DNA sequence: TTCATATATTCACAATTGTGCATACAATAT
DNA sequence: ATATTGTATGCACAATTGTGAATATATGAA
């Protein structure tokens, strides 16, 4: 009972719904920095929201060296299955820009593994190229770190 | 997009999830005082939660004289349908006591219409009878009104 | 080993939002 | 009029959110 409430509460947030949507839109898993760049939030916020989603048993994590990959958790009962189906039914155009950014971000992978940190030079290069063409708003998310 | 967030947020609350569950568990509609007595909250809180649920387009209301009846709103898209299916799949024993109280409350109806206000004498009588038998916790919800 | 660097998490703070309670208010029926 | 059903508002308090700094953990180089 409390779990259902926790799950609905977890999904009732813009950032967290976006995270779930991203994880739902790709077959494999995503690391924190990829999610961060795709969404355009500060990575400490993304980290905290991921923790909330993990507490609600909606995602599971897997650590590989410095990188932490997240994926959707397998639904534990019928209720959660329907919730996931509901999420999968949300029209894609609601997250269009974010999905585009994720595709660009994943193109930076090497051997299906993330090799670029948050806001890496490679990422900046790719984003700038698109900005010149399409005049997309530039990234204004905070750095969440004093250096650099 | 914002609607989905609003809906999930609306469902991420104990009282509101209970309200939706009640509406889902009976074929017809329920008036505010019936919901209030079944849940055991103050009726002004129930009223406000109902307003939130109405804002999220999860319930619809129908006024009949002094009484206001609420019912589940017809799902507007596939996403909402799956959400309702998820809610309908929540095991009943999670709300057992509340469902029992609702059945007792509905037994006070006359001609399928509510004729007893919040915490009426009839309701008190029925509850007391059960309390003597099963030693259920007595109702401790606030009155939400200075008179009476 | 030791140090620097990189990924990710956690902590502290302020701003915002949500909640329950009490009260006042509006609408309706008798 | 007067009682009753339900709503709206103000208040105090708790919960949530985003941000920056600090910390933890892992990698690699000197």
Q: Note the main sheet of chain A.
A: 3 strands, antiparallel
Uncertain runs of chain A: none
- Spatially, the strands of the biggest sheet of chain A line up as 1-3-2
How far apart the termini of chain A lie comes to 45 Å
CATH-level-4 superfamily name of chain A: Winged helix-like DNA-binding domain superfamily/Winged helix DNA-binding domain
Write up what this structure looks like.
Two copies of one chain form a homodimer. With 148 residues, chain A is mostly helical. The first copy, chain A, has a single domain (2-134), classed as Orthogonal Bundle (Arc Repressor Mutant, subunit A), CATH 1.10.10.10. Chain A is built from seven helices and three strands; from the N terminus they run ααβααββααα. Chain A has a three-stranded antiparallel beta sheet. In chain A, a hairpin with a 2-residue loop joins strand 2 (59-64) and strand 3. In chain A, helix 3 packs across helix 6 (96-106). The longest helix of chain A is centred in the last third of the chain and has 14 residues, at 121-134. Chain A is globular, with a radius of gyration of 16 Å. Chains A and B meet through helix 1 and helix 5 of A and helix 1 and helix 5 of B. Chain A binds a DNA duplex (30 and 30 nucleotides) through helix 4.
Give me some keywords for this one:
homodimer; 148 residues; mainly alpha; Arc Repressor Mutant, subunit A; 3-stranded antiparallel beta sheet; DNA-binding
Please describe the topology of this protein.
The structure is a homodimer of 148-residue chains.
Chain A: H1 2-11, H2 14-25, E1 30-31, H3 32-39, H4 43-55, E2 59-64, E3 67-72, H5 78-89, H6 96-106, H7 121-134
Antiparallel strand pairs in A: 1-3, 2-3
Helix pairs in contact in A: 1-4, 3-6
The structure holds a DNA duplex (30 and 30 nucleotides).
């Amino acid at each position: 009972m409390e779990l259902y409430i926790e799950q609905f509460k977890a999904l009732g947030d813009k950032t967290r719904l976006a995270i779930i949507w991203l994880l739902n839109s790709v077959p494999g898993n995503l690391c924190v920095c990829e999610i961060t760049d795709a969404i355009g939030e500060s990575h400490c916020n993304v980290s905290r929201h991921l923790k909330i989603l993990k507490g609600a048993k909606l995602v599971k994590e897997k650590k590989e060296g410095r990188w932490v990959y997240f994926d959707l958790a397998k639904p534990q009962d019928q209720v959660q299955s329907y919730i996931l189906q509901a999420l999968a039914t949300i029209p894609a155009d609601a997250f269009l820009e974010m999905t585009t950014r994720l595709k660009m971000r994943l193109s930076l992978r090497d051997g299906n593994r993330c090799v670029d940190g948050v806001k890496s030079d490679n990422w900046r290069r790719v984003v700038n190229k698109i900005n010149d063409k399409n005049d997309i708003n530039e990234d204004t998310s905070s750095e969440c770190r004093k250096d650099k």
